[in-house]
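[recover] target loaded
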């Protein structure tokens, strides 16, 4: 898959289907497992709860970051199951993108009544 837009489109489509089928109200971990499985069925490489080691100011952080999902090594997917996003959620994804030197991430809130209100594309 060549383009991030195509990849994020597939991720969003699968998230929409899960939300349409189950609605809000489940634990984040349930949505995470379901989205991982659906993306893998689509032939995508998905790493779940990926621990990212990074270095800053000469210090190594072995467990400084834990990504909900990393799809195709290119798209960070951070999942929430809350009533509404907090400002820190956007900052969290942007920080992940900066540390990993990646271009795009998705912040998906399965707790939103309508999933289109709970999906944000974040670009580094």
């Amino acid at each position: 898959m060549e383009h991030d837009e195509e990849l994020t489109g597939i991720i969003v489509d699968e998230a929409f289907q899960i939300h349409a089928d189950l609605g809000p109200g489940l634990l984040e971990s349930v949505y995470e497992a379901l989205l991982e499985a659906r993306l893998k069925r689509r032939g995508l490489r998905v790493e779940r709860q990926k621990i990212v080691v990074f270095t800053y100011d000469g210090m190594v952080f072995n467990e400084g970051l834990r990504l909900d999902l990393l799809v195709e090594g290119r798209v960070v997917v951070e999942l929430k199951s809350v009533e509404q996003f907090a400002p820190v959620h956007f900052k969290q994804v942007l920080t992940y993108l900066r540390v990993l030197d990646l271009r795009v991430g998705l912040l998906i809130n399965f707790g939103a009544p309508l999933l289109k209100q709970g999906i944000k594309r974040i670009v580094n």
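[recover] notes: The chain has three helices and five strands.
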